[in-house]
Design brief:
Largest sheet: 5 strands, mixed
Helix content: 25-40%
Shape: globular
Oligomer: single chain
Strand order of the largest sheet: 2-1-3-4-5
Radius of gyration: 15 Å
Mean pLDDT: 93
Structural class: alpha/beta
Number of helices: 6
């Protein structure tokens, strides 16, 4: 059960935006960040940003990286009792991983099609809510949308600016 209130969600998302912004100074800037918190203790378990370009791996989304870090740290496959935060609405792959990892909730900032697609072409428009509605286990993973959305939108704008200033481009196939 998700025990975090609205103020806690906003605070955690602002912390995630600040963490993700650190990627803007790296060789591979990315506006996609994710963190996982213990729903009971409030402890930050893992945080990561997307490393798709850096690792040349289409599965290295921020959510996937955070899930990998959390399960390794906790030495367990289930993340029941945990909440995942993402600067952007999880794609179907990431939301499926959240479901398989048995996360209690997913909280995200920017919208995939309305916000991220302007900068990073998206492969699918299926929403996390749609995927969660097909879950077979209960309780279902809940989805909280658009927490600190404007901060996440600004992160995308800043990343795009950094990419242009440094003359960095997505690979041609993107």
């Amino acid at each position: 059960m998700n025990r975090a209130d609205d103020a806690t969600h906003r605070e955690r998302m602002r912390t995630l935006v600040d963490f993700t912004a650190t990627s803007l100074t790296t060789e591979f800037p990315s506006p996609f960040g994710s963190s996982i918190y213990d729903a009971t203790s409030g402890e930050l378990v893992a945080q990561a940003y997307d490393t798709v370009i850096a690792q040349c791996d289409p599965t290295d989304h921020a959510e996937m990286n955070a899930i990998r870090l959390a399960t390794k740290k906790l030495r367990q496959l289930s993340l029941a009792g945990h909440i995942l935060y993402s600067t952007c609405e999880p794609c179907p792959m990431c939301m499926s991983a959240c479901i398989w990892a048995e996360l209690d909730a997913v909280v995200f900032g920017a919208s995939t099609m309305e916000d991220a697609n302007r900068y990073w072409p998206q492969a699918s428009d299926m929403t996390p809510v749609e995927l969660a509605s097909h879950m077979r286990r209960t309780p279902r993973c809940t989805v909280r949308q658009h927490v600190e959305r404007s901060s996440c939108q600004e992160l995308f704008r800043r990343c795009d600016e950094v990419l242009r200033e440094r003359k960095l481009t997505l690979p041609p196939h993107r």
